[in-house]
């Protein structure tokens, strides 16, 4: 089951057909390790509970495993995670990042980078060991050093897991709530992102064009025999749309730094190969991100265009049902998040909700239901795991490591983030067991194998107790948009602009303009918003008019003539749902630190006529005009 889930998740980020089979297999197995704890940890708890109370009914179920088998599974999970994160995944990352042509040279460079990474870690360990030798000689015993190494590794991973989980617990319900049915706000935010994404795509396209021109210029030179195959392969690696025979991206072969026959050597070709594959990955990433936004804008614009035409149709009821169910799903996730955060803050106390639920379910062993035990553990554990993973895959580091859905990610970034996903397995498992605080949780196979090693030193006990309670810090940072406010205040400082551009969450980057607008007056914010949206409209219209990529690729699933079912009707029977939606949005907005966005200012300055549209330059349009050129107010 975890392998199937891992296969689907990895397939969202990379194209299996474009990557070698061995990389696909390693990535799928690696991501299945953190997903496996969703099943392995409840099975461990259920089996331990069954053994303690001799419940024969549980022992005959599929969710029961004997002690020896569970111990073996945990050991395999732990040591496989250790091998993948410290050896295999970094080696594959350096392998695909190498610019050499020959396999031997590529392997040697990968091994050198891996050894350099390992030596850096060993140097840190050596410094710590020297400190122990000079200041704490009593710690020099195998048992204590083993526990110290495990504790330091665990604490590092626990901090990472808690921070990512906290961000996901807030962001996932918020995204679902804000995007459910509020088409105008979503459409406005998408339009605001278009100029930035278009600029990124054009920059990466020009960079790839320049590198391609340099490579194509080598063909007219007298290349040394030793490098001829390498140069031929470089020319083959140029994407088809950037070749001279294709007129899609027509450009001149002239470059500012032309390559001569004297320049052709091993170092130059290595650099050129490295830059080419980086430029290809960057252009693909930015192109996919831009096309995703274009697809969403087309979908929402068409949906808004059909809203008035289908007020009395049955699709309106279907759309309202979808809207209500989506809002309810968001509320359910928010409730789960509140329960998890409360249990983290008060773990070990009687008021911990998860602890209360589990104790209530297992209070009478002879009357305990198998389904009840699983239901008390699996939903919370699943949400914790997916919150951490969702946050992890939205991080951007130095504009080098970033992944994107729709198979727009490169193998280096995907390998990098999956290696960190593996590191979340043990800390999330241990953290969940701490929330339970029951006899069978303390006697579980996981606790016996790893938990006792963490408790060998007092520092491990203290940090494991205090760190989950500090989850309130990242929760508040995410809930009240503190990170966005800091970016707005520090914007203009060269150092901070560089740091914010190189290390960020994608949704924070998207929300930056909205928070910046909230600091200005309504009229200025509306005027600037109109200019930004007008520019975005022109970009979208030009792209849809001059390019057939949207129809010829997987982003062509929505066409202007395709009917949409997610329509919110204004019929008399459904006005109650409209009122509930508006009231809920108002209540929810009071908990946000943001002020009214620019689209609200535009809406307040124009009459609310649902039978007409307001164009982005402030003039009214008839409903018959193209949906992609206006916003519904």
Lateral arrangement of strands in the main beta sheet: 4-3-5
Main β-sheet description: 3 strands, antiparallel
Distance between the termini: 46 Å
Global structural class: mainly alpha
Mean pLDDT: 76
By DSSP (H or I, 4+ residues per run), the number of helices equals 25
Percent in strands: under 5%
User: Helix proportion of residues, in percent?
Assistant: 55-70%
Radius of gyration: 28 Å
Categorize the overall geometry.
Answer: globular
Low-confidence segments: 311-315, 512-528, 552-575, 588-633
The strand count comes to 5
Helix-strand pattern: HHHHHHHHHHHHEHHHHHHHHEHHHHHEEE
Q: Main traits of this protein?
A:
mainly alpha, 3-stranded antiparallel β-sheet, 69% helix, 2% strand, globular, disordered C terminus
């Amino acid at each position: 089951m975890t392998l199937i889930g891992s296969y689907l998740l990895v397939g969202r980020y990379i194209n299996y057909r474009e990557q070698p089979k061995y990389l696909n297999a390693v990535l799928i197995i690696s991501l299945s390790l953190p997903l496996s704890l969703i099943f392995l940890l409840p099975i461990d708890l259920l089996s331990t509970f069954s053994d303690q109370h001799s419940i024969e009914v549980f022992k005959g179920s599929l969710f029961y495993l004997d002690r020896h088998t569970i111990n073996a599974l945990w050991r395999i999970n732990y040591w496989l995670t250790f091998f993948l994160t410290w050896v295999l995944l970094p080696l594959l990352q350096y392998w695909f990042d190498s610019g050499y042509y020959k396999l031997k040279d590529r392997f040697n460079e990968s091994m050198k980078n891996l050894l350099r990474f390992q030596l850096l870690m060993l140097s840190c360990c050596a410094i710590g060991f020297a400190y122990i030798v000079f200041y704490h000689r009593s710690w020099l015993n195998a048992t204590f050093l083993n526990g110290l190494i495990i504790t330091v590794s665990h604490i590092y991973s626990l901090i990472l897991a808690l921070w990512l989980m906290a961000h996901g617990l807030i962001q996932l319900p918020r995204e679902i709530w804000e995007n459910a049915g509020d088409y105008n706000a979503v459409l406005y935010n998408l339009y605001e992102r278009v100029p930035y994404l278009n600029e990124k795509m054009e920059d990466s396209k020009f960079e790839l064009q320049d590198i391609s021109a340099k490579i194509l210029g080598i063909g007219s030179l007298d290349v040394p025999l030793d490098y001829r195959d390498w140069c031929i392969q470089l020319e083959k690696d140029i994407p088809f749309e950037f070749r001279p025979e294709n007129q899609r991206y027509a450009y001149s072969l002239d470059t500012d730094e032309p390559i001569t026959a004297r320049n052709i050597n091993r170092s130059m070709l290595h650099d050129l190969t490295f830059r080419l594959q980086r430029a290809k990955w960057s252009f693909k990433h930015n192109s996919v991100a831009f096309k995703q936004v274009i697809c969403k804008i087309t979908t929402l614009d068409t949906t808004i265009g059909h809203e008035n035409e289908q007020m009395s149709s049955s699709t309106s009821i279907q759309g309202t049902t979808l809207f209500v169910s989506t809002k309810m799903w968001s509320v359910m996730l928010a409730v789960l998040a509140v329960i998890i955060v409360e249990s983290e803050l008060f773990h070990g106390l009687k008021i911990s909700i998860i602890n209360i639920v589990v104790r209530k379910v297992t209070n009478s062993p002879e009357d305990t239901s198998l389904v009840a035990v699983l239901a008390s553990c699996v939903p919370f554990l699943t949400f914790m795991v997916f919150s951490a993973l969702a946050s992890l895959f939205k991080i951007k580091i130095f504009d080098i490591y970033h992944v994107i859905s729709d198979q727009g990610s490169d193998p280096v970034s995907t390998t990098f983030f999956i290696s960190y996903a593996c590191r979340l397995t043990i800390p999330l498992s241990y953290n969940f067991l701490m929330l339970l605080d029951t006899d069978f949780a303390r006697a579980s196979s996981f606790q016996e194998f790893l938990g006792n090693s963490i408790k060998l030193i007092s520092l491990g006990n203290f940090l494991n107790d205090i760190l989950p309670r500090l989850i309130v810090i990242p929760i508040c940072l995410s809930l009240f948009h503190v990170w966005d406010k800091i970016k707005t205040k520090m914007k203009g400082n060269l150092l901070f602009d560089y740091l914010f551009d190189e290390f960020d969450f994608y949704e924070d980057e998207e929300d930056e303009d909205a928070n910046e607008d909230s600091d200005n007056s309504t009229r200025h914010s509306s005027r600037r918003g109109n200019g930004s949206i007008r520019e975005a409209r022109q970009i979208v219209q030009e792209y849809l008019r001059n390019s057939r990529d949207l129809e010829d690729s997987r982003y062509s699933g929505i066409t202007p003539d395709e009917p949409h079912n997610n329509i919110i009707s204004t019929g008399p029977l459904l006005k109650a749902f409209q009122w509930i939606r508006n009231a809920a949005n108002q209540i929810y907005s009071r908990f946000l630190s943001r002020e009214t966005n620019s689209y609200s200012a535009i809406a307040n300055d124009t009459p609310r006529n649902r039978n007409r549209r307001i164009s982005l330059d402030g003039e009214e349009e008839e409903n018959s005009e193209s949906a992609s050129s206006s916003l519904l107010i």
